[in-house]
Amino acid sequence: MSNHLFDLVRTNLPADPIAKTFIETGDGTRLSYAHLLARSGAYAAALGTLGVRPGDRVAVQAEKSAEFVFLYLGAVRAGAVFLPLNTAYTATEVDYFLSDAEPALFVCDPAKAEALEPVARGAGTATIRTLGADGLGSMAEAADAADPVFADVARGPDDLAAILYTSGTTGRSKGAMLSHDNLASNALTLREAWRFTGEDVLIHALPVFHTHGLFVAINVVLATGGTMLFLGKFDPKQVLALMPRATAMMGVPTFYTRLLREPGLNPEIAGGIRLFVSGSAPLLAETHRDWQARTGHAILERYGMTETNMNTSNPYAGARVAGTVGPALPGVAVRVVDPETGAVLEPEAVGMIEVKGPNVFKGYWRMPEKTAAEFKADGFFITGDLGKIDGDGYVHIVGRGKDLIITGGYNVYPKEVENEIDALPGVIESAVIGLVHPDFGEGVTAIVVARPDAAPEAEMLRILEARLARYKCPKRVVFVEELPRNAMGKVQKNVLRDLHAGLYRA
Ligand code: AMP
């Protein structure tokens, strides 16, 4: 039987699945491709025993482990829809997701089972099993008791493989429905674009409830029969120690900034690596430059989102331009349009980024109106990201549409102001936000992390006035110890807006 996504694994199995390592965990345990086949088969069979039918959702809020990966693959093979949940979600949030998705099974951490059981029951999920960071729990036991030889449930390209809820910084979190082909086609595109082969050894220190760690990283490795060094969390010292044994790493920008603080980072330790990838949040041009200076490697930055998988990537061969996310990937159409008129804009003009391709999701779970509102009649998806395409076809992201500041009737793109601030001596990083202002509607406000040698507020404002049009200049600079970030390293501007909401109120 053909199972579109799992066929990607089958057709790319290494020549010797018993000898070849798929996952090596942080403690040195090696799990082969033969183990992957058997263990995912056992999970698929166990899901059937627990009453999961093809098309049913399997919600999982569990810590990262190799067993988590086999459960994901088991769900795919059973024809179920895998639904990972951020481990930081509280019981109230879990309640929302379970009520919305109505999974046939909920798998959670053993330590949370007592608290979450009544929540799941209240939300209508009858069956609950557990899986811990150590790979143990009643879900793993169900797999132990199941037959590892499993005939994959037939699934076509358009059948759903997963639902990933968007982080939802505004309004309700939405379930992005991803088909077998959304995931399989993107894995193949990235395999080619980034030249992954079975020889690759990928450092995997990302969380697995998010598209980056779950799909980009794992599916690309599966599409080559390569190996992952699979770490429970990102620890810069551990990553550095493993670097000489790896050929590639995928990370969020904070991985790179934190590794740069390690004195041991040098060209020798990174000598065996052929590719460093960054995504999920903007990589500062400064980090790109510092990384190149310290290791000799140009980080390859790419752009994607939960709903679309990966859309653009800097080239493997060719210029990896700091501060850009590169041209559209093969098979993906990217355009920039005027948000008001919808007219496609000329190169260099800033507008709304829209994308179309086999990577783009099937819509939001049980939200047909929301889905309809975010797709154009010609099939393009409105990303919500503002950006431009330069003369060389490289995409530049200037921020989320909702982060656009409108001050005295003028549009201000935070990124432009942040770039100027970040270039000032002593500034580590900045986030520019709009806050309610009695005269201007919104006042441009700079939240800045700086060393003691940075200029004080008044002087910083004076310097910026010489570099930016007056309306773009911050009205105030607020110094903070650090910027609030989510698990993927994204600066949470909504949190900053709430924290500083009263700044211009009398
Ligand atoms: P998520 O759905 O959590 O993966 O978030 C997707 C969003 O992250 C995108 O819509 C962008 O706003 C942002 N993003 C992802 N990659 C990049 C990047 N390389 N540079 C800037 N923003 C990015």
Kindly list the characteristics that best describe this protein.
29% helix; 23 strands; 24% strand; 8-stranded mixed sheet; 15 helices; 506 residues; binds adenosine monophosphate; 4-stranded parallel sheet
Notes on the protein architecture:
The protein is an alpha/beta fold. About 30% of the residues lie in helices and about 25% in strands. It is built from 15 helices and 23 strands. The strands form 6 sheets. It has an 8-stranded mixed β-sheet. The model has no long low-confidence stretch (mean pLDDT about 95). The site of adenosine monophosphate has 18 residues, from strand 13, strand 17 and strand 18.
How would the blueprint of this fold be written?
Blueprint lengths: L3 H8 L9 E5 L4 E3 H17 L7 E5 L4 H12 L3 E4 L6 H11 L3 E4 L4 H10 L4 E4 L7 H7 L15 E6 L9 E5 H14 L7 E4 L6 H12 L4 E4 L5 H7 L5 E4 L1 H8 L14 E4 L6 H11 L4 E6 L3 E5 L19 E5 L13 E6 L11 H7 L6 E9 L5 E6 L4 E3 L2 E3 L1 H9 L4 E11 L3 E10 L6 H9 L10 E4 L13 H7 L7
Parallel strand pairs: 1-10, 3-4, 3-5, 5-6, 9-10, 9-11, 11-12, 12-13, 22-23
Antiparallel strand pairs: 1-2, 7-8, 13-14, 15-16, 16-17, 17-18, 19-20, 21-22
Helix pairs in contact: 2-3, 2-6, 4-5, 7-8, 10-11
The structure holds adenosine monophosphate (AMP).
The site of adenosine monophosphate has 18 residues, from strand 13, strand 17 and strand 18.
